[in-house]
Design a protein that fits this description.
Elements lengths: L20 H29 L1 E5 L14 E5 L9 E5 L14 H8 L10 E8 L4 E4 L7 E2 L2 E2 L17 E4 L6 E3 L9 H8 L2 H4 L6 E10 L5 E2 L23 E3 L1
Antiparallel strand pairs: 1-2, 2-10, 3-4, 3-10, 4-9, 5-6, 5-8, 6-7, 8-12, 10-11
Length: about 250
């Protein structure tokens, strides 16, 4: 005899037992964990190969960049004259930072969300590439690159500016010549050339560049995009390198 309450009706199978709530929760946690791992991998790959955020450490790029601005740097491609570049402090321009970072920041650095904590970075404007002849200054007080004067409306100068101290340099191969926009208050290629009398110390290597700054990300009130100033469009290619017996640099 068949129990009518448990027998199939019209050929249908008995209903399956409902999934318990905690099983559904575990599945949701598992799926969210997978999505989170994928998101972290994507972000890490973007940080390694495409872009990286940095915090401006000093006022040397005022008023273009302010201290503590969060900026975004684009990594692919070679930097151009006029770019604002982020580069490693391989030459010891900055004092060593011995502060121990908190554990959470170490984790963020490991996941590539922030730059490596054992490296220090500078932000400057790239004025001259390898082979360029950079001179300060012409009769109007402008820096010239390969004989072309630069009109730089973004500069900050004080009265009796030390930034106008005359210098001349042929940028060595594989190096670059960088200056801050606030040239009275910037430890840059000009300052290092005149204080150390060393071209190698004054011109960071091109392979130290981490990327070209293209935007301010924070604070939102200062958010903006950057491009190469038009004045650099007229800079010609460098001429032949100087003869061995000619001075490759001077600072007076």
């Amino acid at each position: 005899m068949v129990d009518e309450q448990t027998s199939p009706v019209d050929g249908q199978s008995p209903s399956e037992p409902k999934t318990r709530w905690w099983v559904s929760l575990l599945r949701w946690i598992r799926d969210m964990g997978i999505y989170l791992i994928i998101a972290c991998v994507v972000v890490a790959l973007m940080r390694i190969f495409l872009l990286q955020n940095y915090v401006v450490p000093s006022g040397s790029m005022e008023n273009t960049l302010q201290v503590s601005d969060m900026i975004l740097a684009w990594k692919p491609g070679q930097p151009e004259r006029g770019d604002i570049v982020v580069f490693r402090d391989d030459l010891g321009w900055l004092p060593q930072n011995y502060d121990e970072a908190p554990q959470w920041k170490k984790v963020m650095a490991f996941l590539k969300f922030v730059p490596p904590l054992d490296e220090q970075y500078l932000v400057k404007r790239l004025i001259g590439l390898e082979g360029d002849h950079v001179v300060c200054c012409d009769v109007d007080g402008n820096i010239t690159v390969n004989g072309e004067p630069l009109d730089e409306p973004y500069l900050v100068y004080a009265m009796n500016s030390v930034a106008l101290r005359p210098f001349e340099i042929h940028v060595p191969q594989g190096h670059m010549f960088v200056l801050g926009d606030h040239r009275d208050s910037s430890k840059d290629s000009r300052a290092m050339l005149c204080s150390t009398s060393s071209v190698d110390i004054a011109t960071p290597k091109l392979d130290s560049v981490q990327g070209s700054v293209f935007a301010i990300l924070r604070p939102f009130s200062r958010a903006q995009w950057f491009s190469v100033p038009e004045t650099f469009d007229d800079v010609p290619d460098p001429g032949p390198p100087p003869a061995v017996d000619e001075a490759e640099w001077s600072c007076t």
